[in-house]
Amino acid sequence: MEKMKIAILGYGNLGRGVEFAVGQNDDMELTAVFTRRAPETVKPQGHIPVYHVDELLKKKDEIDVLVLCGGSATDLPEQTAEYAKYFNVVDSFDTHAKIPEHFARVDRAAAEGGKVAMISVGWDPGMFSLNRLYANAILREGSDYTFWGKGVSQGHSDAIRRIAGVKNAKQYTVPVESALEAVRNCENPQLTTRQKHTRECFVVAEEGADKARIENEIKTMPNYFADYDTTVHFITEEELQRDHGGIPHGGFVLRTGKTGKDGEHNHVMEYSLKLDSNPEFTACVLTAYARAAYRMNREGMQGCKTVFDVAPVYLSPMTAEEMRSKLL
Amino acid sequence: MEKMKIAILGYGNLGRGVEFAVGQNDDMELTAVFTRRAPETVKPQGHIPVYHVDELLKKKDEIDVLVLCGGSATDLPEQTAEYAKYFNVVDSFDTHAKIPEHFARVDRAAAEGGKVAMISVGWDPGMFSLNRLYANAILREGSDYTFWGKGVSQGHSDAIRRIAGVKNAKQYTVPVESALEAVRNCENPQLTTRQKHTRECFVVAEEGADKARIENEIKTMPNYFADYDTTVHFITEEELQRDHGGIPHGGFVLRTGKTGKDGEHNHVMEYSLKLDSNPEFTACVLTAYARAAYRMNREGMQGCKTVFDVAPVYLSPMTAEEMRSKLL
Questions:
Q1: Would the CB atoms of B274 and A184 count as touching at under 8 Å?
Q2: How far is residue B230's CA from residue B19's CA, in Å, rounded to a whole number?
C-alpha cells in the first residue's frame, strides 16, 4: 500500500501533535515539516526533514496533504487561502464569527487549484459542530447547549499575564455542574453567562506585588472575567509548573427535544470530550480529516469543505465493508 | 418551496413516530400511509390517506421517499430490496450480523432503479455507529465501549411472556454505573457481559401461578438472562400499565485513547442518548435521513447507503451557509 504523504506547516504544540497522530496511522507518513523559523532550530520527535517555508512549493510533488498548524489570529487567514491553490490542506481555524469570510476566500483558492481545503477542523469548531448539526437535524423542536471545560483557556491565561505584578498564570474554564444537570433533566433553562461557567485562576505574583489589586483587576476585567464568578489562587511558580503544566480541555454539547402527539416525550442527546491534551486531540482530528481531504480530492472533489461536508466513510482507514461489519 | 413527499409503509409505533416527525419539518409532507392490514382499520393522527400496500406502485409519482417502518426479522429483509427498485427508501434494519447481506441485496436493487436506499438508520445502528466511527478515526489507539439502557428490551420482555404462568412483563436493560465510571476514568476495563449490564424484570403472574418457578425460569434462561444479574419484581397488571407503560431507551458509546510521545495523555469521547420513546426518536432519525436520501438522489447518487456514507450537510433543512454560521 502506498502511504499518504503528509506535511506540516508550523511546529508548535499542534504540529507536534500531528507528528504523533500520523505515527498512529499506518496508511500515512510524515514527509516534511515546514517552518518560518530557522529550520535547524526546529527538532521533530522523529527523523523528519525540516525546511524553511520558502521551500514549500518546490516540494509540491512530495506532499498529498499539507496540515496547517498555525494560529487563527494571523497565520491561517493568510496561509490557508495561499496554500489551497497548490495543496490539499487542513486547518483548525477557530474564530467562529469569521468562518464565513474564511470559507469564501479559501473556497476560491481551492477551486482555482483543483484541491480540497478542509477548514475549522478540531473539536470546537469540529466535533462539537457535528454534534450540534446531527442533533438539530434529528430533534427539530428543542434547545441547544454547549459547555466548555474543565480546561485551560489560553486567551484568558494571557490576559491575566498582562496585568502588572503578574509573573505567570493559568486560567481554567469550568462548567457549572448544576446547570448541566438542569439541561439533562429537560428543564430547558435559560442560562446567563455567569450561570454556565466559572473561571478559576492560578496566579504567580511578582515579589512584593499587591495581590489584592491583582485579584481585583482580574475579577473586574471586562469580557474576560467581569461576567463570571471568578476564583483567584496565588501560588508559586513551582506549584504552577508542577500542578498546572498541562493543556487539558473538553466540554459538553447537549440538545434536548420533544416528540409525540403533544410533545409528551423528552429526549436528551449528549456529547462530551475530556481531553488531557487539547492540541494533541485537535491534531488527531486534523489527521483524520487529512485522510478525507486526500480521498475526496482523488474522487474529483475540490473547493473548501468543513466537517459538515465530509461523509464519515472518508475518515477511517478501514474499508467500507469493514466499517459496516465492525462499527455499524 | 416545494415540499418533499414522504410516504410510510407500516403504521405501528415507528410509523406513527414518523408521522409526528414529518410534522416537525417544514420542508416535507406526509402524503400517504401504506399498510398490509385493511386500510380502513388504520387511523393516522392527521388527515393522511391510507392505502393497501398493493397500491404502492401506482402512487409512485406522488412519493419522493418511502420510509419503511416494518420489523427487521421478516419485513425489512424483503421490503427494502423490493421497494428500492422504485423508490428512494429508508429503513431501520437492526440485525447487526446480517447487515452486510442486507446491504448487498438492497444495493443491487437500488442501483437497478437508480434510487438511494438508506439502511440501518436509527440510533443503534445509526447514531451510535457514527460515534464509533468518528471516535475510532480520531483516537487510533484506544478502546471502544457501548452500553445500552436504561431501557425496555422488547425481545427480553417477549421472552418472559412466553413462560407458563406469566400474564404480562416488561424488561429493562440497565448499564452498570461502576463499569461506566471505570471506562470514563480510562482504566480500560475488560468487561464481561455480567459486568456491563443488569436486567430488571417486572412481571404480572397469572392467579395461582408458582412465582418462585417463574423467577427461576427467567433467571436461568440461556442467552437472555443466565449471563446477567437479573432482578424479578412481581407486580399487578395495573401497576405495570401505570408505571411501565412507556418505551424508553438509550445508552452510551465511549472511546478512550492515548496520545503523545509515550501515550501519556488520555482522552475520553462519550456520546449518550436518554430517550423517553425509542420508536419516536428512531422515527426522527429516519426522517432526517429521508431528507438526505432525497437530496443525494437528486444529485445523481444511487445505491445502498448507510449513515457512514451521508455527509452531515444533507441532513439539515438549513442551507450550507446557515449551518456554517449557526452550528459550526
A1: yes
A2: 36
